[in-house]
Design goal:
- 16% of the residues lie in helices and 38% in strands.
- By secondary structure, the chain is of the alpha+beta class.
- The strands form three sheets. A five-stranded mixed sheet has the order 2-9-8-4-5, with no helix packed on it.
- The longest helix has 18 residues.
- The termini are far apart.
Length: 140
């Protein structure tokens, strides 16, 4: 029969070994892969990240027209893409974004610029007020 201290020693060792094997594996950091900071209005805009293991991480983005939350569109080769909808990519201005994770803080911003400057601009010069019907008038 084993002495009691050996039994405690074996139980303690098995407990320590089980705790070491159940330690959660450290995830790799989330890294922004897209280096472009300026996009043209109307073009497809997306941000690529590495290190995102599941599709539950959302991307919060806001500009002068409002805010929205995007879900990842593609996950391939450990790269996740968030594609911005047309109602954001067609408007010029600064877009701020932030990944919505519990422990990793990652945020940034980029600028959407116009495609090209107009070649010509037409204007109309007419009467200062236009009768819109009855007693209603429009002023230009």
């Amino acid at each position: 029969m084993m002495p009691i201290k050996y039994i405690y020693f074996l139980l303690l060792n098995s407990l320590i070994l089980s705790l070491n094997t159940s330690v959660k594996k450290v995830n790799e950091p989330i890294i922004l892969l897209t280096t472009t900071k300026e996009f043209k209005a109307g073009n497809k805009i997306y941000l690529s990240f590495s290190g995102i293991e599941n599709d539950s991480i959302k991307l919060y983005c806001s500009n002068s027209y409002g805010s929205t939350i995007l879900t990842s569109s593609k996950t391939k080769n450990n790269q996740t893409q968030y594609i911005f909808p047309e109602y954001i990519s067609n408007k010029i201005g600064i877009v701020n974004w932030k990944l919505l994770t519990n422990d990793k803080k990652l945020s940034g911003k980029f600028t959407i610029t116009r495609k090209k400057q107009p070649v010509s601009l037409e204007t109309y010069l007419g009467p200062p007020s236009i009768e819109a019907g009855g007693k209603d008038y429009a002023m230009m």
